[in-house]
Amino acid sequence: MHAGLHTASGQFEARGFPEVSPPASVFPTIFESTSAIPMKASRFFVSTLKEAPADAEVASHRLMMRAGMIKKLGTGIYTYMPMGLRVIRKVEAIVREEMNRAGAVELTMPVVQPAEFWQETGRFDKMGPELLRIKDRHDRDFVVQPTSEEVVTDIARQEIRSYKQLPKNFYQIQTKFRDERRPRFGLMRGREFIMKDAYSFDRDLGAAKASYQVMADAYRRIFDRFGLRYRAVAADSGAIGGDLSEEFQVIAATGEDAIVYCPGSDYAANMEKAEALAPAGPRPAAAKPLEKTPTPGKSTCADVAELLGVPLSTTVKSLVLATDIVDEAGNLKGSQVWLLLLRGDHDMNEIKVGKVPGLDQGFRFATLAEIDDHFGCKPGYLGPLNLKKPVRLVADREVVVMADWITGANEIDFHMTGVNWGRDLPEPELVADLRNVVAGDASPDGKGVLAIERGIEVGHVFVLGTKYSKDMNATYLDEAGKPQFLEMGCYGIGITRLPAAAIEQNHDERGIIWPDALAPFTVVVCPIGMDRSAEVKVAAEALYEQLLVAGVDVLLDDRGERPGAMFADWELIGVPHRVVISDRGLKEGQLEYQHRRDTAATKVPTAGIAEFITGKLAK
Amino acid sequence: MHAGLHTASGQFEARGFPEVSPPASVFPTIFESTSAIPMKASRFFVSTLKEAPADAEVASHRLMMRAGMIKKLGTGIYTYMPMGLRVIRKVEAIVREEMNRAGAVELTMPVVQPAEFWQETGRFDKMGPELLRIKDRHDRDFVVQPTSEEVVTDIARQEIRSYKQLPKNFYQIQTKFRDERRPRFGLMRGREFIMKDAYSFDRDLGAAKASYQVMADAYRRIFDRFGLRYRAVAADSGAIGGDLSEEFQVIAATGEDAIVYCPGSDYAANMEKAEALAPAGPRPAAAKPLEKTPTPGKSTCADVAELLGVPLSTTVKSLVLATDIVDEAGNLKGSQVWLLLLRGDHDMNEIKVGKVPGLDQGFRFATLAEIDDHFGCKPGYLGPLNLKKPVRLVADREVVVMADWITGANEIDFHMTGVNWGRDLPEPELVADLRNVVAGDASPDGKGVLAIERGIEVGHVFVLGTKYSKDMNATYLDEAGKPQFLEMGCYGIGITRLPAAAIEQNHDERGIIWPDALAPFTVVVCPIGMDRSAEVKVAAEALYEQLLVAGVDVLLDDRGERPGAMFADWELIGVPHRVVISDRGLKEGQLEYQHRRDTAATKVPTAGIAEFITGKLAK
């Protein structure tokens, strides 16, 4: 029997695995860190694979699987293995520190949440199958949280009574679940994931904007510390308007998002948001006659331009939309058909279209019946001339300055060429920015032309306004004792997505290349023949302890692997700094240092190795 | 627009809330701690209540609610508010450090787990409504993990190939869910909770026992560091047998569990496990005649003893059990009735009864029909004499040494007195330990007598054997290249239950009294009239920064509350060390220090206050 009454005065000797402990001054005891425990590979868990599973389509997924950082349990559901968890913990630690520094206060909301809160805001019904729903033993509805706006608003309406308590910002780093239709790319689009979500509460929109700015600044510090190339890009903020939404995008050629920036200034926005300015010059004068030109079987702008031997940019495409007309009782009374004209080489931007007056309450693509009714023709040959019934016409800013353009004739196998505003059809009723920008467009800030690159969204800051506080009646009392709705903001960082994004940006054919701040270990000490050579063993352990005491996150690979396999492991895992200790080197008084990005090792005198390495880290 | 390309070389200046940062040497950067950020009450979230909600039945629930540590979201589901989360993080940090020190490796398994793994072990069907089940958008079954034996065994069967990889111990600190029938007592018996669960894998039972011992030792270090009075008590280890299960119980008068210990030795066990030794002396000689005595309406031993004016310990109670007889095809062929005899003042111990040969494959209480068939009487007057049909008789160790005892006559309203073994009925066929021990019983280790106190189970270490590895075919290859089942152990600590248990043990009428290691803040600096007195403000901030730099987890209460309210808050919250700074004190060159357990403050010269406090903590 092993028992008896124990108290704090009991002894602390390390039974089991006695190990060297770093001096207390290096590792404080308040919230003791994972790294306070010496790490030798034999006591850790290193598990690498030669081949990635077939379903791993992107580099980060392949490499995290091969490096033993994650393990698939089900579709979009992964165990964070010891090597991967260390990276996640480093992400969390940086996020937590900067959130605290910015005055946010950490709490932890439940993963399983009663549906009643989600019903208050209507999201329980609106969210669709992405929201994972549960019934408990009493048949009551619950959800697994995908975010926590409802719960944090419930906390705020109970806790925040007076303007004196504002501003307040609560955050959590917690497990989330979204039942994605197509989970893929490992941690990039998983179903279960860890997110940092923060929610600010303010007395008015001005104060909410200030809280937003504090968070936007904290995010810059966070992403700076991660050591990744990223852009903070303006994003559409929906009904709120103004510059109140930014995405933090890690630059990577494999990114899902197109991000727009101006190399000559600090302008950056996502594709949804980036504005296409009206062209600077005036419309050229009409030079060609209006003609109906046969274009048999050519139903796309590209085909027509090729047939006619003209640039695609001289063609105009017709997009037919419709809005429903309902009476006050909500009964459908008919529809209004809209014709949007865009240059043939441009793509429609749905967010922008949704801001056109008249289309801003919702729109849809017109039905074939509606199209036939107004154009007397089927899609492929539609245009603004010779309409059967009038439509509302909206021209893109670029289209309105075109002359002698080409568009559908509303007759199968025919297009109109030499079309000119004013002469052949009236000036457009509405002109708007309807399209995605393209590289080379003028920057909205007038400081050059736009470029486009790919990014992975890993953070988002957003002013929510009073949507949730109104739905849930979350108010505070102002100076006059009058209840006012709380102005909210929300701020997310994809904690488990971040390592995947970092890998997409930083890898080569041998494996991952972590920035120091995110590496599972910053330095790996690789002794060659540690089991055969007492000198190697002594030197390796001495260096390892020296680095440990200096506060370096170092791992000693004491597994006894052969050099080739050992090096391949750490190159795959992506530890940025490696020191090799060999018998031959020691005889020469030298060790070999190599950064993961270096093509060859650097010989460093044994005596100065610790300073050499800490110098590399300090950079 | 706030954008542009940022890199790690970007500047780090603190925008938003500039604050004093402690020197880097105090807070290392590897896994930076929550406490690295200066804590002032105005930037934190302090929210106390005068009254606890009506459903808070126990002290820990009441006090955690009143101190603003937890907030109820639904039945058995709580948000960990900032003040409570700090306590939980301190529990986690100590657990994590000692688990790492003991050679366990941290990973994080999913909260939402595919049912297929739970079907492999049969627990998906066996576990009942306590297991929260989900269907995803594709109607596939999932569970919210209550523990992770299945998932970790799946990891082991994939990852552990050779005996060379053993032993291995994986652990996680992760959200769990059990859909309890009666959630209550706040975090003590919630539905969602945080548990540290560890799982060891070994080559054979001997190695598994060694891994178990490493964990049992680590648990002692963990509970020592928490600063709580606790006992590690032997628990029943089910089919495995031997001393392979211990519970860690925090001593508290309000505990749900009875724990048995010997004040004169280190023997301790839970009630299920604690052995009642056979009495030392021989059976006294028969001194009374056997008589049928009228006991009208007296159907309990207590009533009979009172009627006859004899001690309860001279009576014997009859418990009638039954075992089903089935043929090889599993068809029910009949039943065997058992009569268990216990002293009238003793309680049956089901676990012990379940180990009696013949009862160890399952038993039930006999039906009224079976009782009537064998005893010719209804319960209340049953006994071993004058049976209608033979039964199998098992006597408790204590009963077999009794003489002149009293038991039912198998006739309504009559008992037999002066009953004696050998003379009036044969010596019992089976003698066994069938009862719960009581205070004053001899200790099984022969070193005195047993005492009983109440405890709250907060940890459990357990050898699992090969149950899961056999169900899931988790094997490794031994030296001969032969597959062998992995021997497992599991080790839990209730991370969110621990603070509740700590409070049950450490509170008074004013609030919580945290041990230093668990307190949300170790020291609170309370300035009186900080807004009115520049001297107080300067002295308070100087002391606060001095303690911060010394690595003390200190909070400065700069809210401007009046002294009474401020003191009441911190006494309720339970911060162990308080320093009060007032104008009057400063004029006298003195500050007031008070430990939460002290009845009065101690005056300490201003000059020496920081050393005084760190001295108090060092103790």
Automatic annotation (TrEMBL), chains A, B:
It catalyses: tRNA(Pro) + L-proline + ATP = L-prolyl-tRNA(Pro) + AMP + diphosphate. It is found in: Cytoplasm. GO terms for cellular component: cytosol. Residues 71-515 form the Aminoacyl-transfer RNA synthetases class-II family profile domain. It comes from Variovorax paradoxus. SUPFAM superfamilies: Class II aaRS ABD-related, Class II aaRS and biotin synthetases, YbaK/ProRS associated domain. Belongs to the class-II aminoacyl-tRNA synthetase family. ProS type 1 subfamily. It comes from the Bacteria. PANTHER family: MITOCHONDRIAL RIBOSOME PROTEIN L39/PROLYL-TRNA LIGASE FAMILY MEMBER, PROLINE--TRNA LIGASE. The keyword Ligase applies. The lineage of its organism: Bacteria, Pseudomonadati, Pseudomonadota, Betaproteobacteria, Burkholderiales. Keywords: Aminoacyl-tRNA synthetase, ATP-binding, Cytoplasm, Ligase, Nucleotide-binding, Protein biosynthesis. Homodimer. Consists of three domains: the N-terminal catalytic domain, the editing domain and the C-terminal anticodon-binding domain. It is an enzyme of class 6 (ligase). The gene is proS. GO terms for biological process: prolyl-tRNA aminoacylation. This is Proline--tRNA ligase. Catalyzes the attachment of proline to tRNA(Pro) in a two-step reaction: proline is first activated by ATP to form Pro-AMP and then transferred to the acceptor end of tRNA(Pro). As ProRS can inadvertently accommodate and process non-cognate amino acids such as alanine and cysteine, to avoid such errors it has two additional distinct editing activities against alanine. One activity is designated as 'pretransfer' editing and involves the tRNA(Pro)-independent hydrolysis of activated Ala-AMP. PROSITE patterns: AA_TRNA_LIGASE_II (PS50862). InterPro entries: aa-tRNA-synt_IIb, aa-tRNA-synth_II, aa-tRNA-synth_II/BPL/LPL, Anticodon-bd, Anticodon-bd_dom_sf, Pro-tRNA-ligase_IIa, Pro-tRNA-synth_IIa_bac-type, Pro-tRNA-Synthase_IIa_type1. GO terms for molecular function: aminoacyl-tRNA deacylase activity; ATP binding; proline-tRNA ligase activity. Its EC number is 6.1.1.15.
